């Protein structure tokens, strides 16, 4: 019983360590990486928004001219038609606007779990989506176009030209479904980010990308490699219109949003002001899209990547050591807990774990910042793998070492501390180093929940500059520099250990 109490205390301390050390760090993250919503969508959402003093809008900022990013005075700003609409809605509600940038296919989940209040991201109010969320009146309507490579105009004229070809579309969008239903004989290729689809198009992995006509024309206007052609697909109002998505059964919030949209339509602000302003931002980006102008994007990404790695490595090592000792304990209860945890964590993908911690657990315990959720998920995942490494190291020490230490009067705890663990650490150091390097690279997965680490920043640069390959190449070099530095650092201490033998 005493052992069980000790384990419980240690687990509590571990969780307390993660919880206490990261909120202050999370507070310094950008607005796109903070969770400020209520834990679940319920009650009068309009009253909650006004009580909180802010409107949290979810979007996928890779859809120019509706929503994208722009470097203004050295800072990343969200710009575009949808951003201006979101600003006006927040202004009319008398609250501040907060933007949360997520992948498009995560937006509905984010709203259902209370991470965001509404979605303003070029979303079509389809019948299928209306089953889970409500929509405002439409504020924009357009057709669908294919984005193709320049020089392919003679090959591709409309939807009938893509028989036997690969056509890309963003996951969770109406366009992806239209490829299946209307582009006969084509193979749909889906990705979460539109910028990655454009990159696939540039590398000839796909033959075209289906998107909203306004978006296709924006890409073609800002990159001479592309051409936008009309798809020839007939779309209904719910497939071509764009509206604000909001939680079910919120009449007061819906009325307030429709009032703002009605005034915007009456004043014709989208055509007169918002689209020209977005076009101006896109043109200035085109004129200054050299990578040197975006060094601070990469620097910020590297900073957060290192931050996540250092905290997760420390927490993962503590948890891994505890789990290893539990698995080696004589107590069947402790052994069973450790085995179940390790096997479950190793048997599920890290990406799923990150999303579960953020969207699932985060919805139960209230406000959980994306940075904190990412660190917790990676730490818990790393702990399972580190536990097996440490266990194998301990079991590699001959039993005679333990017997000799105990015969000299050392307790079991001191035997582990002064005899077993130091020797095991020497044996497992290379394996631990490999786990730390893997963790550094795996930290890129937290970008799916909006944490501004290196991969997230790379996607912003891709979207802002309309370049796909060069930002990825720079990111590869930065990851190599970080992993190479860590390898040399670990190698130095490995050499010191061998020298002291």
Automatic annotation (TrEMBL):
Membrane-related topology note: Multi-pass membrane protein
One GO BP annotation here?
A: amino acid transport
Gene Ontology CC terms, in alphabetical order: ATP-binding cassette (ABC) transporter complex
- Which keywords appear in this protein's UniProt record, sorted alphabetically? Amino-acid transport, Cell membrane, Membrane, Signal, Transmembrane, Transmembrane helix, Transport
Does Transcription regulation appear among the keywords? Answer: no
What are the ABC transmembrane type-1 domain coordinates in residue numbering? 302-482
Q: Does the keyword Coiled coil apply?
A: no
Q: Which domain of life is it from?
A: Bacteria
Report the Gene3D superfamilies cross-referenced here: MetI-like, Periplasmic binding protein-like II
Q: Which InterPro entries match?
A: AA_ABC_transptr_permease_3TM, ArtM/GltK/GlnP/TcyL/YhdX-like, MetI-like, MetI-like_sf, Solute-binding_3/MltF_N
Q: Where is the signal peptide?
A: 1-26
* Annotated TM spans: 301-325, 356-378, 469-493
Q: Classify the main location.
A: membrane
Where does the protein end up?
Answer: Cell membrane
User: Which molecular function terms from Gene Ontology are attached?
Assistant: transmembrane transporter activity
| UniProt record similarity statement | Belongs to the binding-protein-dependent transport system permease family. HisMQ subfamily.
This protein is called Amino acid ABC transporter
| Species the sequence originates in | Ligilactobacillus equi DPC 6820
Where is the organism placed in the taxonomic lineage, from the top? Bacteria, Bacillati, Bacillota, Bacilli, Lactobacillales
